[in-house]
Amino acid sequence: MTLINPSNDAEPTALAPDPERLDARSLRAWTERMLVDRREDDSYAVTTESGHTYRVDLPERSCSCPDHRIRGEQCKHLRRVAIEITARRVAPPGRERARCDVCGSVTFVRGDESPPHRCRRCELVPGDVVLDRETGKRLVVARVLDERADERVIEATGETVAEYERNDGYPAGDPVVEATYLSDRRGSKPSRRYAFPLSRLDRTDEQLVE
Hints:
By secondary structure, the protein is mainly beta. The chain is built from 3 helices and 12 strands. The chain has helices spanning 24-31, 66-69, 76-86; strands at 2-3, 35-38, 44-47, 53-57, 62-63, 96-99, 106-109, 128-132, 138-148, 175-181, 194-197, 201-207. The strands form 3 sheets. Strands 11-10-9-8-12 form a 5-stranded antiparallel sheet, with no helix packed on it. Strands 2-3-4-5 form a 4-stranded antiparallel sheet. It is elongated and about 70 Å long. The two termini are 34 Å apart.
């Protein structure tokens, strides 16, 4: 797991969609340059363009700014924290930012969660239907192993999964996924399982229900 130091993104930034579709507070939340820092108590310090800093508590949906305290509005600071979390620039309460150990994208993990860590796209579970990038065929995930592709030995060949010719170019450190070809499951015989480096399999939105 590669935890991401918040200071890497510690620059005030404007994040803007189409301004014509936003109300005034949302527009300010998106377009004003703000710096959002998560504190140790899981609240957020939001520093505005004017240099003022306000405390945002997401679970309580509260902010220390006058717009929220006096007017009771969902202020631009509350909205900006939500925007930053959605953009994965800061982590939500109870989570930390990390790099997915498979694809390298930013994901959120529990602070006490043991590696390897995977984003939702790379987190396969039994029953998920995936696409073999090499053959274009669909498979069903049987299980995801704790072994890496350069550790798991294919009994039939004596090679590791990483050494297998058709797996050339995929990360040797990938977790190994055992899967069966969907076409093999139509017969009465038990389907043979094949071992793949995770990156060779492309996730679909399908899942097999027995």
